[in-house]
């Protein structure tokens, strides 16, 4: 006896969301900074710090809120981006609090300003605002392709943000801040995200024209003269920023971002060659008549010169702190990077990492940054639309350039730029903007990794016979 059963087959496989993996990684990302906080308290004051429970609850609450929002509104997002950013943010808070305990920095601040205001509580507040913006991005940005509608609006907004600091007083020789009473804003941190949106929308439309080449010279395909317009315009804007704001970091970030995205969109090596040549030519040209840029180059070339030690002592102290750290470091709270002065917790916070964590710890920090960039590039490769690919690679490229510019300046590889290390250095604009950047990358990765909907059942579907004895 046999029974014939007709069944319809549908090939839909549910992809794993990896949210539990993200939760496990977040637990480590919260526990590691808590133990680091405990280590600093024992090293500096020989006792468990009184604020340890509050710090642990604060960073745990922020990480938990971020995870719940991702689990609900971006369930297929990359599981590593949020834990990596949380780990950097948590360790940055610990390093800033460690410098707040320095008697030398406290005495110097009281002598200069009459009182000392710790930066760690403010940085925790900025981190909370950054997480709030991260949540807002995931709640409001349902589809990253919506941003393509605002291509030219984003260009106008970015130009306004880059021009505004010209009308405010310079700080430490550079006009990169907007000061409104007690509030200070560094618009360049937000401009990098908005510029990436503009470049993504523009290059998605113009990439075919930009990919055309007229002739081949010395193995390189040179672009047509009329196609040089965009790169000449961006080059001129970066030079103007460098001239009027004496801001080397934002200029390098702005122009480097455009060259990376242009190469990815067109796959023409000639654009990189043109970009590097024009960037070098512009920097050399500005350095010949801009005193502030000349000064930074001089400090970079001769950080230990007696004639300039009073101005270049921060760079010299930073290099000595790296040497004092050795391979494994002096231990948290047991270094002397606070001798650097007022920029110890912002521009030069990597010096504390190099001295107290050593070469091994510095490599671990750079590896975490590299993982964030790698996950962003992987998101770009997985994205199904050209705009998403370009936007993910643009945001990842901007993040990578900023890390290189800051780390290179502190380590003496390039002249100091004055930018802040993402998530680690003290500064509200930086941490808030970079949390927004991570939010956009998570939204793109959720769209890229989300499984395609299963096809609807069809009456013409293949009929399968199952025979049962």
From TrEMBL:
Compartments reported by the entry: Membrane
Protein's GO biological process: cell division
Pfam families: FTSW_RODA_SPOVE
Family matches, as InterPro entries: FtsW/RodA
UniProt keyword annotations, A-Z: Cell cycle, Cell division, Cell shape, Membrane, Transmembrane, Transmembrane helix
Transmembrane segments: 23-40, 52-69, 81-99, 124-141, 150-170, 190-205, 226-244, 250-266, 271-289, 357-377, 389-414, 420-442
Keyword flag Repressor: no
Region (Disordered): 449-469
Main localization of the protein described in the UniProt heading: membrane
Membrane topology field: Multi-pass membrane protein
Protein name as annotated: Cell division protein FtsW
Organism, as annotated: Streptomyces camponoticapitis
Organism lineage: Bacteria, Bacillati, Actinomycetota, Actinomycetes, Kitasatosporales
């Amino acid at each position: 006896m046999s029974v014939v059963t007709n069944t319809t087959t549908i090939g839909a496989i549910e992809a794993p969301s990896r949210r539990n993996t993200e939760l496990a990684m977040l637990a480590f990302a919260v526990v590691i900074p808590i133990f680091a906080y405990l280590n600093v308290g024992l090293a500096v004051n020989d006792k468990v710090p009184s604020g340890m429970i509050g710090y642990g609850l604060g960073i745990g609450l922020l990480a938990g809120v971020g995870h719940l929002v991702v689990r609900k509104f971006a369930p297929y997002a990359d599981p590593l981006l949020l834990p990596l950013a949380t780990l950097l943010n948590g360790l940055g808070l610990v390093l800033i609090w460690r410098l707040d305990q320095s008697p030398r920095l406290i005495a110097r601040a009281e002598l200069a300003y009459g009182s000392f205001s710790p930066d760690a509580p403010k940085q925790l507040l900025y981190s909370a605002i950054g997480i709030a913006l991260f949540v807002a991005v995931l709640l409001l940005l349902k589809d990253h392709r919506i941003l393509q509608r605002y291509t030219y609006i984003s260009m106008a907004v970015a130009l306004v943000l880059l021009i505004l600091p010209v009308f405010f007083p310079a700080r430490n020789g550079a006009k990169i801040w907007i000061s409104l009473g007690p509030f200070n804003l560094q618009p360049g941190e937000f401009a990098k995200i908005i510029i990436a949106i503009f470049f993504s929308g523009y290059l998605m439309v113009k990439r075919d024209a930009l990919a055309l080449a007229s002739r081949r010279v010395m193995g390189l395909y040179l672009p047509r003269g009329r196609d040089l317009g965009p790169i000449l315009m961006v080059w001129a804007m970066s030079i103007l920023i460098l001239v009027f704001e004496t801001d080397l970091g934002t200029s390098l970030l702005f122009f480097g971002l455009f060259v990376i995205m242009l190469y990815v969109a067109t796959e023409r090596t000639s654009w990189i060659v043109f970009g590097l040549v024009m960037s070098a030519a512009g920097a050399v040209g500005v350095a010949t008549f801009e005193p502030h840029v000349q000064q930074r180059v001089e400090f970079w070339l001769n950080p230990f010169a007696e004639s300039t030690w009073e101005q270049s002592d921060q760079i010299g102290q930073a290099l000595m702190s790296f040497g004092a750290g050795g391979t494994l470091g002096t231990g948290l709270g047991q270094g002397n990077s606070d001798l650097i002065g007022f920029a110890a917790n912002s521009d030069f916070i990597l010096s504390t990492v190099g001295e107290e964590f050593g070469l091994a710890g510095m490599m671990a920090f750079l590896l975490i940054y590299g993982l964030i960039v790698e996950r962003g590039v992987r998101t770009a490769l997985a994205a199904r639309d050209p705009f998403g690919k370009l936007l993910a690679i643009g945001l990842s490229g901007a993040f990578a350039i900023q890390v290189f510019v800051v780390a290179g300046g502190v380590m003496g590889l390039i002249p100091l730029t004055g930018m802040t290390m993402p998530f680690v250095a003290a500064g509200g604009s930086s941490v808030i903007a970079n949390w927004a950047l991570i939010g956009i990358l998570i939204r793109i990765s959720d769209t890229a990794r989300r499984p395609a909907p299963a096809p609807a059942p069809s009456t013409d579907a293949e009929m399968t016979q199952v025979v049962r004895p």
